[in-house]
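Practice problem: Putative transcriptional regulatory protein YxjL
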Amino acid sequence: MPVTVLLVDDEPLVRAGLRAVLEAQPDIEVVGEAADGAAVIPLVRQLRPDVVAMDVRMPLLDGIEATRAVLRTVADPPKIVVITTFENDEYVYEALRAGADGFLLKRARPAEIVHAVRLVAEGESLLFPAAVRELAGAHGRLRGNPDAVAALERAALTGREEEVLRLMARGLSNAEIAARLVVGTETVKSHVSSLLAKLGARDRTQAVITAYESGFVAPG
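Answer key — structure tokens:
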């Protein structure tokens, strides 16, 4: 089955470009388009896309609020990738905090766009991990988020889970973590699932943001 994608951007040329890139792939199908975040929920319910590629800045309902709305109201919500012009945009970080799985630069090469869609569809979120670290350092730690501190304390992670979370925060994939810790990939997947559940995190991105905002991992 192909990965199905909903495109949400107020610029028709951006949508047309993304559609052309994605539909050139045999395993990806663009099932719909919207020009504003206000149209996302009914389209998600109707089309049931695997991935929503959503502009972070739109005139009526931006990508941050649209992400919150989808995750709050849609059962079994799709993966969400926010689209942005600037990778250090605070709007991007707020979208990630709201539950987006990653972000994609509008100037990205076609191969990067395709890779991003496939990556989040497979559950391997945290696109551009170095940029996420920078965003967390600039916008997260400065807030001293008490919710993140409390979430980490409640989680009571094991020593191995803490190791896995630190490596996730550095942007390592499951396979890379397995090689670093000299364990099997399935063992790493088990640790990741466990720590996500303990932290109440939707995905790897949310767990990493909690790690940075709590001070458990220092940016840089």
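Discussion: The first helix runs from residue 12 to 23. Students who identified this feature from the tokens alone can consider the problem solved.
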